[in-house]
Each structure stands twice: as C-alpha cells, then as structure tokens.
Amino acid sequence: MVFWTSNQKPYLLDPTVLVDSPVPIFKSLGQIAKENVWGSLIVLIFLLSTLLLYLYKKKISPIEETKETEPEIDPFTEALKEFNELSTSTPRPKAKPFIFKLSEILRLYIERQFKLQAMEKTGEEFIQEISIHPLLRKKFEMPLRDFVQRGDRIKYSAENFDSKELSSLLDSAREFVCEAQKDWEEKQRIDEERLNAEKALNSPSS
Known about the structure:
2 domains; 8 helices; mainly alpha; 0% strand
C-alpha cells in the first residue's frame, strides 16, 4: 500500500499533467527583430549611408575627371593669341568695342600671371594695384597708366578715333605683355636658383 505524504507537490496529483511544457528552441524573425530593434536600426542607417556616399562619389567623379583633363591655361600664350585674333579680325571692331576687348586681354593676363584683381577694377583702381606690385611698379606703372588714360579717352569720349590710334594701343599692350613676361620668367629663374641654393645649404651632406 502506498501512502501520500502531505508535503507532496499538488501538481503531481493532477493526472492531466504528464510532462513539463517544452521551452521553444527557435524564435521567429519577428521576435528577433523586436528584441534587437536598436541594433537593426543602426545597421540599416550604416548601409543607407554607405549607399548614399557611393552614389555621391559616382556622380561627382566624372566632373573631377573633366577638371583633371582640362589643360592649364598659359596666360602669356593666351594673351598673344587674343592679340593676334583682335588685330586680324575682319572687319575690325569699332573703336569702343575694340578698346574694351584690348583692355580685357591685358587685364586678364595681369590677373592670371601676377595674381592681381584686375578685371573688376576701375582704371584708377587698376593702376593702384600695379603701383604696389613689387615687379610691375618698377618699369610698367607709367606705361600702363598711359595705356589706361588713352583707353578711357576712347571708351568714354564722343570723339572719333582712326585705326592708327587703335593699332598704337594694340602694339603698346602687346609690348607690355612681352616685356612683363620676360621679367616674370627672370624672377622665376632667380627664385628657383635661390631655393635650390638654400636646399643645398640645408641638406645633411653639406
């Protein structure tokens, strides 16, 4: 005969309880996503940022390649080319358009080669820029002042000017560019020699 003690667990007396409920081994995707919502969000943001960065670089790369393949403009060569085109243009432009174009060529050369703000300056402001430039002020301030004054007289005067006056201004502008280029190249050569000498003095073997 079997006697049940009073300290036995009640559920053992329940004939419907045969086994314990099994613990689930696998979780659904919904449960996993719910438990890792912040981690999933971080991963999603990272992937989206990577995709946007890739698309942005892909978009701007053709622009950068175009910039790299564009040849660098030589201010001196470009100025001479523009002078020749202006002098041989047929029919020759009238006095005012001619002098405006001539002044533009000259100022653009100075701006590119000597790093001066020349294009947006008035005649007087332009000469002031020339007067403080260590290379140009020595021998070119007065010729450029004369060029500006003669050019302004044509631009803003009601007088009629013949082709001889225009040709004279063209020749003076071309002469300035050629002389200024020689001085610029000479300065570049001197600066390069000085730099090489300093490097030689500072080198460990010296």
